[in-house]
Specification:
single chain, alpha+beta, Arc Repressor Mutant, subunit A, 9 helices
Length: 186
């Protein structure tokens, strides 16, 4: 079971490209592994119907199968795996996630996007989208000397398509993964 969960990390490139068909060599480069290794890791996802595979000559392409009934759960695991890995690398991100877990009311989703998804420590500011209720971030901003650019909406359907495209390309789901994955991928 753990092996299957950790192998969901190969879905990570699809999180920022949910509607695109991705070439095997681009996936291998992004994942930092040889084509043959990645092909072996993708094969069970194709066999299970999570991914669709297409051959064009000697090129292989993959895309999410949005008709698969379990796709949302696979993407949630991939998102959480990505977040856990980033929190292990960066304690400041873990502190932000902990703050959000403690302070935000149930049902509120939080998405970090922009340059801070690469490095919270190196980022000049944090772009944070809250869907649901909001909280003030002054204490966090003052303590870590990071300005928080907060965008707050009550529902996902209030987010502009331009902002959604920006978030899809570079994001970390900090809270409310299930609703956020459905919104991002569909």
């Amino acid at each position: 079971m753990v092996k299957k969960m950790t192998e969901k990390s190969v879905l990570e490139p699809f999180l920022s490209n949910p509607d695109e068909e991705l070439h095997l060599s681009a996936l291998a480069k992004e994942q930092g592994m040889p084509h043959t290794t990645l092909r072996l890791k993708l094969a069970p996802l194709v066999a299970d119907g999570i991914l669709k595979k297409r051959q064009k000559g000697n090129m292989t392409f993959f895309r999410l199968n949005k008709e698969h009934p379990g796709l949302t759960e696979h993407l949630i695991i991939a998102e959480k795996t990505k977040l856990l890995a980033r929190c292990e690398e960066e304690p400041l991100l873990l502190e932000l996630v902990t703050l959000l877990r403690e302070k935000l009311p149930d049902g509120t989703a939080a998405i970090l996007f922009g340059s801070a998804t690469t490095s919270v420590k190196k980022a000049h500011d944090l772009d944070l989208l809250l869907i649901g209720e909001s909280i003030p971030f002054t204490a966090f901003s003052e303590r870590y000397r990071k300005e928080v650019h907060l965008i707050h909406v009550k529902r996902f359907d209030r987010i502009t398509s331009a902002l959604k495209r920006e978030i899809i390309k570079n994001h970390l789901l900090l809270r409310g993964s299930e609703d956020a994955v459905r919104w991002l991928a569909w």
